[in-house]
Batch of 4 targets.
Target 1
Amino acid sequence: MRQLRGQERAITANRQTSWSFADAFVAEDDALRWARERAREAGLPSVSPGTGGALRLLAATADAKAVAEIGTGTGVSGIYLLLGMRPDGVLTTVDLQPERQQHAKTAFRAAGFAGNRARFIPGRALDVLPRLADGGYDLVFCDGDRLEYLDYLAESLRLLRPGGLVCFEGVFADGRTVDSGAQPAEVQRIRELLRAVRESQELVPSLLPVGDGLLCAVRRG
Ligand SMILES: C[S@@+](CC[C@H](N)C(=O)[O-])C[C@H]1O[C@@H](n2cnc3c(N)ncnc32)[C@H](O)[C@@H]1O
């Protein structure tokens, strides 16, 4: 990377402070803290508060009644999505690991959501997604296997109603996406995803610099 001049360095440092402030802007309650703690114990990343706040905002903006999530984890992102959705909305959430979904179920209950607000489907995303209804979802949130992100995009285009939103977590890959050094396959897949979303005539994209990067796109009507 080229050398930064003093003023540029100061701007970068100030921006970083502002980004940290923005990412911590949303306060978290006991249910979210509990879900985060279970994720930490399992060595599992969960969405940052800033990313969670963005997901909640997007679900509310879409007036979402049906949301599909790939990668339940211990339920951090699920709580944020449910908080933004309509009170009668249902989150369909998929994960390979049923024991993580058990934690998420407990966390959703602790957050005050009735049992019928979430449908937990254990299994591999690419086995489960083809069974979900065409055009039946207002928002699809992808946080599963990065190697499968392009497949999730294809499935999402089928699952979303016109005007619906697809979001991909972690597209900065901790800085590796823009690093010019050799990168593993999952980073290369993320770059392909970014290109595909940016070039798609069917999508209106934006890359939000929250958490580890949240790529969002609206399916045109
Ligand atoms: C980063 S964690 C999800 C964190 C969660 N979204 C949150 O913020 O609380 C990724 C999850 O995806 C699940 N996963 C990985 N590959 C998957 C696949 N192919 N199909 C379904 N789930 C998968 C993992 O078991 C893990 O729980």
Note: Strands lie at 66-70, 90-95, 118-122, 137-142, 160-169, 203-208, 214-219.
Target 2
Amino acid sequence: MTHQPAIPTLSAADPEIAGLVEAEATRQHDKVRLIASENYVSRAVLEATGTVLTNKYSEGYAGRRYYEGQQNVDPIERLAIERAKAVFGADHANVQPYSGSPANLAAYLAFAQPGDTILGMALPDGGHLTHGWSVSATGKWFNAVRYGVRKETGRVDLDQVRDLAREHRPKLIFAGGTAIPRIIDFPAFAEIAEEVGAVLVADIAHIAGLVAGGAHPSPVGHAPVITTTTHKTLRGPRGAMILTDAEHAKAVDKAVFPGLQGGPHNHTTAAIAVALGEAARPDFRDYAHGVVANAKALADALLDRGYELVSGGTDNHLLLVDLTNKQVGGKPAAQALDRAGIELNYNTVPFDPRKPFDPSGIRLGTAAITTRGLRPEHQPAIAEWIDRVVTAAAREDESGLDTVAAEVRELLAEFPMPGYVA
Ligand SMILES: Cc1ncc(COP(=O)(O)O)c(C=O)c1O
């Protein structure tokens, strides 16, 4: 038994599921986890998610529920809200969205009508599906106009954002994305939104932990509506929040419930409160800055080995590597890396000539390995492993992958994982 908290009752009741949970704990322990949207939550957050709060229905908001028996849930939700407001310095917080996608849908529901024009970042350039991409409901039900990055710099093209905003007068502008390795210029977005009368939505799902820890500028004071997941750099449970200024609070609350959702997931709300309590502590600032220091060190080590990084480097937790000059696609490289104990995802790069399911790039992030305790001095070794595996993948040579996996396990054995004991 390696999972912590231990799961003896589950093991007895459903050994099949318990076995897979145990195997997942070991997998997470043994791999260098570089998926940019993932992390390891604390044991306290894990415990909160596994409580009897999952039994309770609480449609509505604290003090205004449609079900009785909220003596404990109301204070839990109020604590989560107060902590969110304090950590981010926001006027208002809604902690009920089930995840990042519904949080973004709530912003549409609150401030736009179907068919209205919205402006978001194109998916292949680093935007999220819910910023108006064609296959998403947001792209089907709204008239989505998309901006991207500059070819020469790999950075968000703010001139294009301004030009498109002036031409199309969107109701909503989304700033933020899933594969943006550079600081997002929230004041510049705010100026554009104000000029055209749009509501600026800052989607900080990826960088929320960095914002909370002072390692990325905050959108508070620039974007009246801020959506975020709670499970990436913020290191909380799967869930989401919407932060707003006072003016936009009511519309967002109405959109989340009753507009879009029924009962909030109270076990998640409790775990969000716990994670926000952790994020308010001074050591979380060290964590957030450590994530960025590790990403920069990993970027430098990969650049030294001739890797091409979109935008030439990183300011945050995330790196986007274009493997074109290594003569291998992102997908075979990611698959070989996974077999070698290095977990990441294949990703399109801006202006990618290849298809999204077989793109040119890989995306890496340092949120999880920083939680594990890895530091900048460990990044050259990770870059060296990546290089060995990518070089082998280009030759379709699988012979060295197990050796790398063993070396990875040996390093990681020194770094405890919350949620696992050997
Ligand atoms: C920027 C951004 N927004 C929204 C989401 C959606 O979050 P979820 O997967 O929780 O629906 C993601 C997830 O990757 C994201 O990166």
Note: DSSP finds 16 helices and 15 strands in the chain.
Target 3
Amino acid sequence: MGSIHLKQVTKDFGDVSVIKPIDLEIKDGEFIVFVGPSGCGKSTLLRMIAGLEDTTSGTIEIDGQDATTTPPAKRGLAMVFQSYALYPHMSVRNNIAFPLKRAKINDDIIEEKIASVAKTLNLTDYLDRKPGQLSGGQRQRVAIGRAIVRQPSAFLFDEPLSNLDASLRVNMRLEISELHKSLNTTMVYVTHDQVEAMTMADRIAVFNGGIIEQVGSPLELYNNPANRFVAGFIGSPKINFIDIEPSTIDGTCSLGIRPEHIEISTTGGQWAGKIGVIEHLGSETFLHVHVDGHDTFTVKTSGDCPFKYGDEIYLSPQKNKLLHFDATGKTLPNIA
Ligand SMILES: Nc1ncnc2c1ncn2[C@@H]1O[C@H](COP(=O)(O)OP(=O)(O)OP(=O)(O)O)[C@@H](O)[C@H]1O
Ligand SMILES: [Mg+2]
């Protein structure tokens, strides 16, 4: 079991309020990702769930029990950090065994568990090495292994892949997703990388300045962002915003259109523009188009794009994909 229920949870550091009242129900077995810009309170809330940071007000329930003041070791949760936090003088075997030895588990059982975890994480050949003799990805797998052997009711990850290079990050992302599918254990995963959030999460909670702006599945957030902040945070390349004269009909003050929802024409369209930088990614192309009277638009098009720097083109949004925002940034129904 590993359900976590946050009720009106807050955190102040001195007179600075870092977590505003937050309500969130994390279901048993769910993979939930906390995403948001630097300093928005993701790590703080994760550490509060772990018990590493005390809670100023509100309640944290784990499996239906009030755990707000329960010491970290008694919460049945395992945390994995960006820095791995391995013991450098201990072998991989002893690093993984450490929590079990501390819990006075029988040596034979420890050996069995280490063998099984090492197999799952592809660490069998490295058990006698020290962390300093491993690559970053291997070290992170050891840190995850140390968390797995404890059979926690939930895993808490704080940016576990940030120290890895791009291709290793993609591999580890898949490995953690696989692990979630095979263990079926609740995972709470903090990242500032929206691609990680989109690809791994059952549900994403988008944080901003100590509040949660929206919680939903990756596609719910992509298709129906609650506001400009979520629309701007989810999706890559980023959505284009267009400020307009406030509508007297529904109060729309700005529009949002994703780069993949803009049509290009050489003969006519809603906006005339001139192509600036072109990014060729092979499978797709990103055009940065200077549009008369607006900011630069990003447009996503096919890999075999025929245009070049300086070409004059027209852009038109797919009308049913336009997002409408009011003066406060809240999303309005698209009545087009
Ligand atoms: N011990 C502390 N004392 C005072 N302020 C703190 C403390 N720890 C964190 N903060 C502040 O709380 C806010 C939230 O920090 P937190 O580490 O939770 O952000 P984050 O969302 O994890 O950011 P990042 O993506 O950079 O890791 C920040 O403004 C930070 O400066
Ligand atoms: Mg953090």
Note: The two ends are 46 Å apart (CA to CA).
Target 4
Amino acid sequence: MEFLEQLPALFSDFANPKKRIFFGYLALSVLIALGWLTLVRKTSIAEALRRIFDRRVFFSGSAIADYKIFVINRIFTFFISPMLLSQVAIATGIYFFLHSLDFLNPAAFTGVNQATVVVLFTLTLFLFDDFSKYLVHRWMHRFPVLWALHRVHHSATELTPVTVYRVHPLEGVLYTLRGVVVQGVTIPTFYYLFGSAVSLYTVVGVNVLVFIFHVSGSNLRHTHISISYWPWLEHLLISPAQHQLHHSVAERHFDKNFGAALAIWDWMFHSLHLSSGEGELVFGLDASEGSSASSLKTLYLQPFHDIFRILRRRVRGFYGLAQRLMTRV
Ligand SMILES: [Zn+2]
Ligand SMILES: [Zn+2]
């Protein structure tokens, strides 16, 4: 009964401007897609609407799996939300650690003008958060144990805004911890250096830079509407088409465009792929990864099986090496 009362909370992300699938951002994404298709691609309004609300995409097996995973993962989130406590623990620990350092002077910059501190804090938090997303995403593709989890996201053969939730719960935990570390480091460091002048520049309770990212169509990266930017801009910001390339099964697109909002990390670390000159894309896992199955049982349980196999192989390899070394002695 108590669970039934919590039911509306499962869908609260649609009413939360901090979340990408907030209904306001979704509505703006529809308008942007409509503008792109009619003004740039010169399609009729009727054709544009048909492509935006394509039934074959939204009622596909892949999309239906997305919706189910969304609900299951939201239930899971209820049980791990107490983890937020760890952010306070990290922040407090770092704050006192900084105070213990003799060579640093607490509140050394308290004289700095408040507006400068707010701009600096807002920008630092956004940059650090976006870079940490790039890094963790890159690791997800680099390390087999993490790829076993991340392949759930890549198993989508159709992209809808809900695909952003198509992640294994353990990947969700890793991303939550990432956010905890970013905030747990940035907030106490700024408080230590600038004192009480620290505050975030927000719009509807969201970091203004995150807000700009969402109102400019962040949802469109998980759709079939291939909006690209000018090449110079795709060096700075990830366009929807660039993230769609990240989901492509074509080998030339592997390990490209890990970025969330900014493309500068991909540019700096040689994983940038511009979207111009690309034809129709096929989304999903490549044939060597097995099928892009949408069975929930496979999506939730296969990663545990794969991780167990990888770790067993590593342990055996380690034992073999140890035995060879022992026999030499
Ligand atoms: Zn990925
Ligand atoms: Zn994606």
Note: The first strand starts at residue 202 and ends at 203.
